[in-house]
């Protein structure tokens, strides 16, 4: 939702301005990173133009402080695009990632079609983009989509990685 996008943007800006913050970790709630954007809100009246998913992903990527995504459950659509904007990604072994918008007749709209090929190469990225299939964490690691796969606490692993980098 745009409320979540705005909250993430506000949190990123606050962390960037705080000299005591050395790295930023983004995680979801209740064992899920993000199922993506609410497609019903795309045409909502009063939609904030300042809180857009592409702008948020660009803000994450441009952070001078390392940003680590802690992916649990699912990171689909806009959720995966948020993770792609992060400098590092840690996934739980049972996590699944993908860009399923194509199954609704849509293309990823928050720069996933640019960031994914840069990260894992064009052939693998095209497969994910045009099929909409969900990629298990082990495959995501092999492709280079995530930097680490863990069986334990994903948030703690992401914090360890953030402290390391």
UniProtKB/TrEMBL annotation:
A Pfam family name for this chain? Answer: ECH_1
Q: Which reaction does it catalyse?
A: a 4-saturated-(3S)-3-hydroxyacyl-CoA = a (3E)-enoyl-CoA + H2O; (3E,5Z)-tetradecadienoyl-CoA = (2E,5Z)-tetradecadienoyl-CoA; (3S)-hydroxydecanoyl-CoA = (2E)-decenoyl-CoA + H2O; (3E)-decenoyl-CoA = (2E)-decenoyl-CoA
Q: Is the keyword Isomerase in the record? A: yes
Taxonomic superkingdom: Eukaryota
Which terms are listed as keywords in the entry?
A: Isomerase, Lyase, Multifunctional enzyme
> Where are the coiled-coil regions?
none
On whether Iron is a keyword of this UniProt record, the answer is no
Q: Name one GO biological process term.
A: fatty acid beta-oxidation
Give the Gene Ontology MF terms in alphabetical order. (3S)-3-hydroxyacyl-CoA dehydrogenase (NAD+) activity; delta(3)-delta(2)-enoyl-CoA isomerase activity; enoyl-CoA hydratase activity
Recorded GO cellular component terms are: peroxisome
Q: Which InterPro entries match?
A: ClpP/crotonase-like_dom_sf, Enoyl-CoA_hyd/isom_CS, Enoyl-CoA_hydra/iso
Q: What is the similarity comment for this entry?
A: In the C-terminal section; belongs to the 3-hydroxyacyl-CoA dehydrogenase family.
What is the name of the protein in this document? Peroxisomal bifunctional enzyme
Which organism is this entry from?
Eudromia elegans (Elegant crested-tinamou)
UniProt lists the gene as Ehhadh_0
């Amino acid at each position: 939702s745009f409320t979540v996008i705005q909250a993430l943007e506000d949190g990123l800006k606050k962390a960037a301005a705080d000299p005591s913050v050395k790295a930023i970790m983004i995680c979801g709630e209740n064992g899920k990173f993000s199922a993506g954007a609410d497609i019903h809100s795309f045409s909502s009246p009063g939609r904030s133009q300042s809180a857009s998913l592409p702008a948020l992903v660009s803000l994450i990527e441009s952070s001078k402080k390392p940003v680590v995504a802690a992916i649990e459950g699912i990171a689909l659509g806009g959720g995966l695009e948020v993770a792609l904007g992060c400098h590092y990604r840690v996934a739980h072994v049972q996590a699944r990632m993908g860009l399923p918008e194509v199954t609704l007749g849509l293309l990823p709209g928050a720069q996933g079609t640019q960031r994914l090929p840069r990260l894992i190469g064009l052939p693998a990225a095209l497969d994910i983009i045009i099929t909409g299939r969900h990629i298990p964490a082990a495959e995501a690691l092999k492709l280079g989509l995530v930097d680490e796969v863990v069986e334990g606490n994903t948030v703690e692993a992401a914090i360890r990685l953030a402290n390391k980098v």
